[in-house]
Structure formats: C-alpha cells, structure tokens
Amino acid sequence: MEIKMTQEAYDSLVKYQKEDTIFLLDEEDGRSEFSKAGSCSIDDLFFLVAISANKKSDFFKVKITTNKMPIYTTEGIAERLDEKMILEIKNGLGYLHLKGTSGVLMEHLPVKDFQ
Predict the structure, then answer these.
(1) What is the CA radius of gyration of the chain?
(2) Beta bridge partners of 49
C-alpha cells in the first residue's frame, strides 16, 4: 500500500518533525496508547500521531510507503486501506484530508503530537 503525499500535506507535517520523529496512522478505538476511548460511530475516526522513533511499539508494525516519509500503522487499519491513497490539504482550508480509490477515508485527519 502507498500514500502519495502532496507537498502541502508534507509541509503541514514538517512542523512536528524533530530529528527522530516518525508518524503513525491510528484510530480512536481505545486499543493503542494514543487512543483515549473507543468510538461508537459507524465511521472510523483516524488520526496521525507524531512520536519519537524509540517510542514506537510493535503494535504499529505495518510500514506504509509514501513519497515523502514512512508512516506506520496497525495490521487492522492496513487491511481497511486502499492500495493507493492520497494525503492532501483539503481545498486550501489547512487541514489534512486522506482519500483512496474507494473514496474519502478521513475528511479532516488530525495530528496528535506525543513527542
């Protein structure tokens, strides 16, 4: 699987980057240390997490290839992603938007900084 990241999307993530920063794609299901609680929503609530590389657990073992930087996720999330995804800034509104060939995954993809 692959995420094509636009330059604008990459630029919005650079402000979180430090020397050892990595990004995780997680969801609000209460299963990871970055997710506070499960969601009762039919829609998945995904978000990106900025962490120091030494804090990455084996729970996030799937590496998603991007044209800018790797993003790690869980096997469960990876199974639900399209083979080709795009991470972009939505219509110049300043927020991240993740979509695939089957449609929009997250209209507004937040970033949580846990560094």
Answers:
(1) 13
(2) 24, 112
Distance between CA atoms of 11 and 68, rounded to whole angstroms?
A: 10
The DSSP symbol for 60 reads S
Over residues 13-51, the pLDDT tens digits come to 999 999 999 999 999 887 888 887 655 554 568 999 999
Alpha helices (H) in the chain, listed in sequence order: 7-14, 75-78
pTM: 0.89
Q: Residue 41: exposed, middle, or buried by beta-carbon count in 10 A (0-12, 13-18, 19+)? A: exposed
Q: Which two three-digit tokens encode residue 93? A: 């509104």
Other C-beta atoms within 10 Å of 44: how many? 13
d(CA 48, CA 1): 17
In 3D space, the residue among 74, 21, 68 whose CA is nearest the CA of residue 47 turns out to be 74
